[in-house]
Amino acid sequence: MSLSPKILLIIILFASLGFFFNSDISEVKAMTVSELQALIAQLQAQIASLQQQITQSEPAVAVPWCHTFNVSMAFGNTGSEVKALQIALQKEGCLAAGVDYSAAAVNTFDQTTFAAVIKFQEKYKAEVLTPAGLKYGTGFVGAGTKAKLNKLYGCASTTALPSTPTSTPAATTTPVDTEGSLTLSLSSETPVSTVQVVGPVTNGLTNVVLEKIVFAANTAEDIYIKSIIIKRSGGRDTDFSTIHLWDGSTQIGDTQVLSYGSATFNLRAGYYWRIPKGTSKTLTVKANLRGIASQYITGSVTGDNPKLGIPTGGLVIQGVTSGRADLPIVGLSTDLYGNEIILRQSQPTIEAVDLTDTYLAVGDKTLYRWAVSADTKGNIGWKKIKFEVTGILNGVAVNSSQISEPKVFDVKTGNEILGSVAYADIPNGFAIIFETDQEQFIEAGQVKNYQLRANVLSVKSGDVISTKINSEAISFTAADYASVLTGSFIWSDRSAANHSEATSDWLNDYKIPNLPATTLSLLRGGEPEPTITVTYPNGGEQWEVGKNYRITWSSARLPVGAKISSIKLSYKNTGATYDTADTIVSYIDNAVGYYDWTVSQKYGIGIQPNTFSIKITYTAADGTTVEDSSNTYFNLIPAVVTQTGYLSVSLASDTPMPQSINKGSTNVVFLKAQFNANDVSDVQVTSLKVRVYKNGSASLDAGADISKIALYDGDTKISTYEAVSGNVATFSGLVWVITRNTTKTLTVKADISATCTAATLALEILGDTDVSALGINSSQISIISVDGSATGKTMTIAGLSFGEIENQLADLSRAVSNLFNKIKEIISR
Length: 829
Prior knowledge:
This protein is mainly β. It is built from 10 helices and 49 strands. The longest helix is centred in the C-terminal third of the chain and has 26 residues, at 802-827.
């Protein structure tokens, strides 16, 4: 015996709704928000399916709706053809039943329609996708999709369909689908190979452009870029923290992380990167670079030279009109890489400094002066420098036998830099290769001035000699210092864990931008006057009372054995309009070139600031004088009291990015803040405040939105749970210690209230107002200063509360009641 359709329908209904009526309400209450939402979606789908079965079980009483699909359609199209498509998709259950598309004034192929087309194509995968060699829906209404639509709803079809009153849209001309293609090429704006100074592991660089690639579509059709693989060559994955793609100022896809040398950017349907036909767009590949790794923290490695690009087979594309995924890609038969970058913790800058005396004469002469500065991100050291000396001396091409005893001096201290000298022949002159006995160290952000001096043995009128730093570039890769036999300027970023002359972080001038090409010359003309030049202090210096400083000078053409008559300190007393001059020393050898002076305590008070200068005088036997003073004023200040300790607060690089968070979520990481102690003292954080920004405002009460907040060091909880009062959570009695010269990361986690009303939430820590800490140094406790801040990313609060879910369940109950009434009506016929 067969069951009637009505009886069968009742059985299906009760089987489908069995879970709803058999589930205890306590089980529903125990479900999470996401599980309840999934249950609601499941029941809604069952109701929609039953409604369709009810409709199909009723006898047809109207002319079936039909439409013949002749026009290909894609995202962004509008008009009557789109209206017919939406009606058919709705009938297939691919579009929600609550919208009357037949009555819409303007029908648009929007994101919802796009997703519905994909659902329809995958529903009939065997007839639509498989014949075209596709695994997944494309969202494009092409030949295969139209054929299936016409089979189901075409006006020539014999399939009986439920009626929907509408008029059949007028047929339009079918466009001709033609094959497109895509051409890739490296943009001329792709950066050249260069050094990227990334600093230590706590620094790094953001938004560094590594490559620009031109994507050009032919004139046949627009091209969708659906997936892009970025591959690394050289270096290592840990050189990069993240990779991101851009079209101008618009980011393409999500930020990715390299894994095993590559990162895949799969673009979501509806957000494919579109290249209009007959035009081109430029893809910019950017990266956030890690600082140089320390002994305990992963990072990049000095000397790494990575580059990024798109490998062969690294693109998934689709013709917008044809829907084809096998269109030709030109220019990707081999991997398409940008230029490599060279990662360094720091790098030097070298500048030529004008000579104070350009007169060529017999005796000790300064041939060249230069300044070496270290980048602010790290220290540098140097060991070897090479000079070229050219010109005419004593009427012949200058050679090493005419200039003896070349030496290098620190201009500020006047001290000779001890080292060894070698010579090499070059056209029209010779090279001086100076190698220091000990590495010359320059702190981050500091500069040192040097000079090359030598003894000129003989000179004729008209002679000239010129000196410059040799511009020779050697091996591209870093090498042990001992193996570097030549080079203009051999230096190191000192990033090796145990840096020494034998470690591999010694580099060369190939990596220094703008190596100075300046040539400094000495010329023998008419006999000039003798000179004295004060070289230090020369203006702007800050000297502390009670400390020892070296006054330095240079001289030219003074008699052999000349004595400096006096060195005087000039200044103005408070309220005075005239200078007072105190003699520091008298009658000392000029040839020494310096005098060490301890600043007297008398200059600590009662004197106008920035009115000090040094004056050096030589008096000849005939009473004539040669003298010079500091170029501008310097300052004498009271002794500086060294601070016990210092703590800086900054946002950690791995703090969570903006995201959507459901109400009722717990242990949500809102903020990661770095706390860095200087090298003076260990630091104990004793109290801390976390501020809440609700809907972008720091003044709104967020106590009902966040139920509690806790602090973590890694996985270790270091605080009690604290509630938010107003917009602040206060943590006191902390015993969190940051060892001197180290960095720790504080993780802030919060529980979101199920009744949260905020649209967005963000957390912040202000170092100078919200953090209290003690310096712990040699058992002495002192209050230290804290600076900096860390503001987390803004999080969007989403999801339904239990009250809202209970309302949806009530709506479902009413829908079920309506279904029972409909079934009773059918049975009674």
